[in-house]
Every structure is written in structure tokens, then in C-alpha cells.
Design brief:
Layout lengths: L3 E6 L2 H10 L6 E5 L1 H6 L4 H12 L5 E5 L6 H9 L3 E2 L3 H4 L9 H19 L4
Parallel strand pairs: 1-2, 2-3, 3-4
Length: 124
């Protein structure tokens, strides 16, 4: 009956093991490090969807998308029904970009490159 946050999980086998080792409706948060899974070249969405299915028999279990790497991970987590996502400042700083016109963003990016080149003092 003690609420648990099982952290640093990286695969469905670990989620199965915790589900089998705990009481049926024990309050659990499964902190699966989706960002680190993606760092290994694996699809975190597929893993997180499977984790949701595994924990669905426990009405007190929640899935936490840990270590996101990009703003889009918030949308991915929401789309699959993930309960919680941890988001740091570097990702929150990008929230203002949601829905930004891509033509405008492209021009701003080129302008930034140009200013960086001028600031370097390099000449051809």
C-alpha cells in the first residue's frame, strides 16, 4: 500500500517484473526513461505504448515519460495517453515555437547563420 516511484526503467520486462512483484492496486509510478531509450536508436513511443498496456490492470498505476529530448515528446506522450512527463527548462523554452510559421522560421534561421558568420570575422 506504499506509493512507489520505480525509476530509471528502460524496457517492458522491467515493467512486467514490477507489476508481478507488487500488490494488485498498489499506487505506482513507472518512470520509463523514453529519452534514453531513443538515445539508443530505439522507438520510445512503441515501448511506452506497451508499458501502458502492461500497467492497465492496476487502476493506481501511472506511466511517467522521463528524460524527454525534444518538445515533440510532449505531444507524443499526450497522444498515447501517458500520465506524466518530466520537462526541463530547455524544452519549456521552446513552447513559444508551437505552430510557428516554418517559412518565417527558415528565414530567421538563415539570418542567425549570417550573423554568426559575420561575428566570426572570417573572410574569403
Amino acid at each position: 500500500g506504499i506509493p512507489l516511484n520505480i525509476t530509471a526503467m528502460m524496457n517492458t520486462d522491467q515493467v512486467y517484473q514490477v507489476m508481478n512483484a507488487t500488490e494488485k492496486n498498489c499506487p505506482l509510478i513507472f518512470s520509463v526513461f523514453a529519452g534514453r531509450i531513443a538515445d539508443t536508436g530505439r522507438d520510445p513511443v512503441s515501448c511506452m505504448e506497451k508499458c501502458l498496456r502492461i500497467i492497465s490492470s492496476n487502476s493506481n498505476a501511472e506511466l511517467l515519460w522521463a528524460s524527454p529530448r525534444e518538445l515533440y515528446n510532449i505531444f507524443q506522450a499526450n497522444e498515447i495517453g501517458c500520465h506524466i512527463i518530466t520537462v526541463g527548462d530547455s524544452i519549456l523554452d521552446k513552447v513559444g515555437l508551437i505552430g510557428k510559421n516554418l517559412d518565417e522560421y527558415s528565414l530567421e534561421t538563415v539570418a542567425t547563420f549570417f550573423e554568426d558568420a559575420k561575428a566570426s570575422g572570417f573572410e574569403l
